[in-house]
Amino acid sequence: MLISQFQTVGRDLCARGLVSSHSGNLSIKLGERLCITHRSSMLGCLEEHDLVETRINKNDRFTPLASRELAVHRAVYKRTPASAIVHAHPAYAVTLSFSEQEIIPCDTEGSLLLSRVPVLSFGTTVKPGECAEEIADALTTHKIILVRGHGSFAAGQLLEEAYHYTTALEESCRLLYLLKALK
User: Fold this and answer.
1) How many whole angstroms separate alpha carbon 48 and alpha carbon 6?
2) Is the distance from CB of 95 to CB of 181 less than 8 angstroms?
């Protein structure tokens, strides 16, 4: 069931504090269409009506209901082989995005899984939905990216895979933050 995939990942993102009550978004590619969370939906308690199905290549009557990050999701699906996207606001990762141009994990899992994570729009402030092409371009060579002061975008074949990249990034950033505090 499509809704159960969204519910599991949405609930887990919320439980781990990787999104606030009405932030973040999820999507799955469905051929020439995509299913994305509704604008301002609560990922921690998603219902069927919180999902919006719309076209990847052009607007339709459902487009205005979709997440404000729809442009990013569309660009990623057009440029990469991804079938699922998780956009989150992990606190340690966002914190480090203000001072780092890329995240290089120091832990074994992060190093093996992510290698390095670019921070886009370093030195500027980005609003939701902006930098769609820059994000899509970065996700052609990375599993996950950070947008300075905003959050992460992870792309995979399944929502669970993109969620894995998101949690691995946040754990790596938490450890990097704690190591900086020791110095």
Assistant:
1) 9
2) no
Count of C-beta atoms within a 10 Å radius of residue 28:
23
Contact call for residues 135 and 153 (beta carbons, < 8 A)? yes
Number of compact structural domains in the chain? 1
Distance CA 138, CA 152 (A): 12
Buried b (16+ CB within 10 A) or exposed e, 58-97: eeeeeeebbbebbbbbbbbbebbebbbbbbbbbbbbbbbb
C-alpha 111/C-alpha 55 separation (Å) is 36
pTM score, whole prediction: 0.95
Token code pair at residue 89: 């606001």
Question: Rounded to whole angstroms, how far apart are CA atoms 26 and 124?
Answer: 25
Handedness of CA 77, 80, 83, 88 (dihedral sign): negative
pLDDT value of residue 126:
64
List, in sequence order, every residue forming a beta bridge with 85; answer none if it has no partner: 27, 155
Query: Could you tell me the CATH number of the domain that includes residue 97?
Result: 3.40.225.10
- Do residues 10 and 26 make contact, with C-beta atoms less than 8 angstroms apart? yes
Q: Kindly give the residue spans of alpha helices, DSSP state H, lying in 41-158.
A: 70-79, 91-97, 108-114, 132-138
Q: What is the pLDDT of residues 130-179, one digit of tens each?
A: 689 999 999 999 999 999 999 999 999 999 999 999 999 999 999 999 99
